[in-house]
Amino acid sequence: MFIFTTRCPRYGRIGEASLCALLAVALVSPLSSALAQTAPVHAADSVRTHHLSEVTVSGAHRNAFSSVNKIDVPLRDMPVTTSAVSARTIEQRGIDDLQEAMKNTTGVRANNTYGGFQHFTIRGFSNFVLMVDGVRDERHNISTSAPSTNLANVESVEVLKGPASVLFGHSALGGIINIARKRPSADFKADFSAAYGTFNTRRIRAGAGGPINDKLRYRVDFGMSDTDGYRHSGSNTNNGYLALEYTPTERDLFYLTIGANKDIYDTDTGLPMLEGSKLAPGMDRGTRYNDPADFLKHTRYDYQLKYVHRFNSGLTLSDQLSYYNDNINYFSTEELSFNATLDSLNRSFPFYFNHLTKPLQNQLELTYEFDTKGISHKLLAGYSLSLLDRKTYNGDVFGPGKNASVSVRNPILNQGYIDFKDTYYRATMENVHGIYVQDWIKISEKLKGLVGLRYDIFRGTYFTDEVDTDRNVTSEGPESKISKSALTYRAGLVYQPLEALSVYGSYSTYFKPARRVAPNGETFDPETGYQGEIGSRLEMNARWTASLALYYMRKNNQLEALPGGVYKRIGSAESKGFEAEINGSLLPGLDLTAGYTFSKAEYLPYESQEINPVAGKRVAFAPQNMVNVWLNYEAQGGALKGTSIGAGVNSMDETFTNSANTFVMPAYTVADLALGYRIGRVGIRLNINNLFNERYYANAIYANQFSPGATRNFLVSLRYSL
Predict the structure, then answer these.
(1) What is the pLDDT of residue 527?
(2) What is the pLDDT of residue 6?
């Protein structure tokens, strides 16, 4: 076993750093290139055995690259808890973005800030890893939030609850959110849809896929979504996607995906609340107080190439190489503060940054199936490499509109010219090596086990350089280095007293490197944590499943950012609770997704004699109770054949927005309704969201700046499928 590092150029030349990273990956996995010359097996039609289970290359089904379990094992045989949002639910509910999709999952709370930044709390903690087709999106692990484009090319969204460091590396305490994109099909398929709705919402989606010849298949998708938005917090998202699947022989499969999006959002700073989380007199919930010059722009290009070689029925090797170029350009009012008479607001903190993130990642994995004395094994061994190249430009904001005041009532939003210029950038250069092994064990027909172990080596270099307005470096700052390693593991057992019933227990650990560097150069220990869980799963006739899980999670070595760039250790937090979920088709044409979550997440006292002022307080953005229900029925025959009706409810308990619990968003319940009709290849649907026009707050920033949820709104969509 060899661990190596490469010395790449210091940040200024991104092209050189990326080329160096590519060479490093080429050194890591020469075996995958050599395998392209070997004689192979055929990968045929696509059938997915389960939302999250790995599907191997064979005559009956092929590798599902979006899998977050990575092995060909039914979910009922795994000691894990999962949720999934299918393409069917996405269509029925008229869902267009990841935040909306998450309201159909149990145990997940979505938060959208500044108009387009999305982040999620899973089981009470905000530590999660977002993935696209099984590849980590590192932006969330650095900045906690990031924008995601519309879901035009998405087949499903999968959530794996609890620590997942063994298979996917650091930072996954709450869990994994995996976006699984559409894949090439054996037969030609095409679809087109257009929609129009409240707030001048317009959407167009088009996609097609099928065989080019007996060895090559394709899938292309395009999506455009444009809306003026509630409170004039609009967005325009545009994306395109191409997937190619090539099986030159019966033992080899190549899978290439290319995606791109160009999006822009009107930023939204929310409404500043008074003490007691009350709205100021005369303030209109529908008014947005941002400067017209504010913006959030997101441009992204991502590429993935996976190669799979099947040596025989029990031995498979795969290598997945990925790279994306992500540009987030942001300029916005971030803070609103009242004057003494509460009749005007000061835009007290206009802020600019430009994140340029370019991670290169590679996963080399070997799967081996074998038996030992009547016990079956599915062994997975892997090596992952992540090379992160990121620059964040910041600068000065200037102009007569800087720090302007606007009236609370009938504000004049344009208060004069305001602009920005670059003055420095902050560099983040990281490489992470991960070696992992996992074994799924079938001890008997009723007893299965899972054990896994991973060792990560994290190396980070951080510095700040001054630049001129053309972004040429004028002064180099000192480098700070962080070097950490961690061992994580998981183990679990599944017992099946009946064929339809599984009972399981598991224990798993987590770590997250502390990337923060104090002004004095001090670095901090990584966050660590663990989860213990017991649960059960009932599967009836492969049509519907019901699950129940009880868990305890703990997170240690937390930091809190204080004014002046100072960081304070705030100790540990715990989350304990349970989830219940039912999902599937109860009757022909009747689809149900429903879940209930109870999660009590609190900060803990310090282990030392020092008093933790937030001990016993609820963790921010971690409501205790959440309910999600979606029920849809489509008539299967008779005069009403093709007619459908759907109804859903999302209910959330009160949610504190800071660790001191001084501000709280009240509890709310929102109901949605959908009516549809389908005849032949054509379908029409009416979605009514927030049916009873509930007044509620959906998101918050700076603890006291709340963003109201949208009022009642409509969407009419027309779909044509081939």
Answers:
(1) 87
(2) 39
Check residues 713 and 586 and name the one with the higher pLDDT: 713
**pLDDT digits 0-9 by tens, 133-172:** 999 999 988 888 899 999 999 999 999 999 988 989 888 8
Q: What is the DSSP string of 48-85?
A: -SSSSS---SSSS----TT-SS-SS--GGGSS--EEEE
Length of the chain: 722
CA-to-CA distance for 342 and 322, rounded, in angstroms?
52
Q: What are residue 150's phi and psi, to 5 degrees?
A: -65, 170
Task: State the Cα torsion 464-470-472-473 to the nearest 10°.
Answer: -30
d(Cα 159, Cα 83) in Å, to the nearest integer? 5
CA proximity to 115, closest of 152, 145, 151: 145
* SS3 at position 141: helix
Place of tokens 């790449």: 8
For the stretch 397-412, what's the b/e string if a residue is b when 16 or more beta carbons lie within 10 angstroms of its beta carbon? Answer: beeebbebebebeebe
Alpha-carbon distance of 290 to 273, in angstroms, equals 16
> Which residues is 299 bridged to in the sheet?
262, 327
Which residue, chain included where needed, has tokens 């379990």?
69
pLDDT band at 11 (very low <50, low <70, confident <90, very high): very low
Q: Which of 264, 296, 407 is nearest to 347 (CA)?
A: 407
Element (H, E) at 613: none
Residue 275 main-chain phi, psi, to 5 deg: -55, 145
Query: What is the rounded CA–CA span in Å between residue 502 and residue 499?
Result: 8
Burial of 528 (0-12, 13-18, 19+ CB in 10 A): middle
pLDDT at 305 over 90: yes
Q: How far is the first Cα of the chain from the last one, in angstroms, to the nearest whole number?
A: 51
The answer to whether the beta carbons of residues 210 and 187 sit under 8 Å apart is yes
> pLDDT tens-digit profile of 195-205?
999 999 999 99
Name the DSSP letter for residue 231. Answer: G
* Positive or negative: CA dihedral 18, 23, 24, 30: positive
Tell me: the pLDDT tens digits for 334-388? 999 999 999 999 999 999 999 999 999 999 999 999 999 899 999 999 999 999 9
- Neighbouring CB atoms inside 10 A of 637's CB total 9
Question: CA distances (Å), 189 to each of 134, 181, 217, 510, 573, in order?
Answer: 24, 15, 12, 42, 49
Q: According to the model, what pLDDT value does residue 91 have?
A: 95
Contact criterion met (CB below 8 Å) for 503 and 495: yes
Of 84, 85, 163, nearest in space to 122 by CA: 163
Measured distance CA(172)–CA(456) in Å, rounded? 13
